[in-house]
């Protein structure tokens, strides 16, 4: 491949560290400092202007970006939003709401299931297709009515990192456009503009996170917990770990622990929790106590004072942040953790067994 790894041992590591730059590019020129309208391109803006509901179609990591954005669309823009795994959408009956916009998310723009789902959505009468895509001249970009490019640059590692966070940034821009259409004025623009700097700050924790990896390398299972908009982040953390370290991992909304996964928790089961300072923190704390009481090994990422750490918990402190961008920040330690676990295990980090960077057949 023509992209060099430079000083990095793996493409995945390089791509993790490219995130501040990639995010800067995704936001550049699109987010004016003053009250001027967002500059997302005329076609994108007009699709958004007409949307009264949103259906997101995607696969894999891109699907997790969609799940995250659904929380934003519903809470910040008050728009109904459903997210579907593209390979399922194409094989079930589903009907659009009036003015329901499709947002198709794909790094490559070549995922066969996502392309087919977009085609089906058109036949079923959905009102326009916006692609969030990393490749300008891809099949998805051509099939859509408008494209919002993520500008992450080529992503070589099969496990997606910078594509995910730039998808979230691009989605955040559409969320802002729609929220502002609804008359919401807030400090969300400023929060988004600070994103690349805050990402930089978190990436500086890499060596501290590397130290946690040893606790995972000999384990067979791991659980990732989050609540609300951070539940999809837990799903993405679990996906990263299983893809490259081959450790079986599941993401769960922490309140659902008691309905099943708690039965699995013991000393052999690391449990990773993202505990940002939001309205669900108190609830999450009591979920974590349930894990601790059963001897589970907890690894918690949160702001100072988020949880009462002590016996049975490794706590990792995160900088304070605006709630809007918090999911984009909290996925970073999970990416770094998976990377270091995989390196310790000696797997082929950039080309994990049985997986392809882009799945162009069904
Ligand atoms: C494959 C890759 C994943 C990716 C998914 C969707 O499974 O291994 O990393 O998330 O495809 O790819 P896309 O290019 O559509 O985002």
UniProtKB/TrEMBL annotation:
Q: Which reaction does it catalyse?
A: D-fructose 6-phosphate + L-glutamine = D-glucosamine 6-phosphate + L-glutamate
Q: What class of enzyme is it?
A: transferase
Catalytic residues at 357 (for fru-6p isomerization activity)
> Has keyword Transmembrane helix?
no
SIS domain boundaries = 44-184, 212-352
**Keyword annotations from UniProtKB, A to Z:** Aminotransferase, Cytoplasm, Glutamine amidotransferase, Repeat, Transferase
Q: Does the keyword Cytoplasm apply?
A: yes
Where in or outside the cell is it found? Cytoplasm
- EC number, UniProt record: 2.6.1.16
Q: Which GO terms describe its molecular function?
A: glutamine-fructose-6-phosphate transaminase (isomerizing) activity
Tell me the function of this protein: Catalyzes the first step in hexosamine metabolism, converting fructose-6P into glucosamine-6P using glutamine as a nitrogen source.
* Subunit field text: Homodimer.
Protein name, per record: Glutamine--fructose-6-phosphate aminotransferase [isomerizing]
Native species of this protein?
Thermithiobacillus plumbiphilus
First-to-last residue of the parent protein present: 242 to 603 of 603
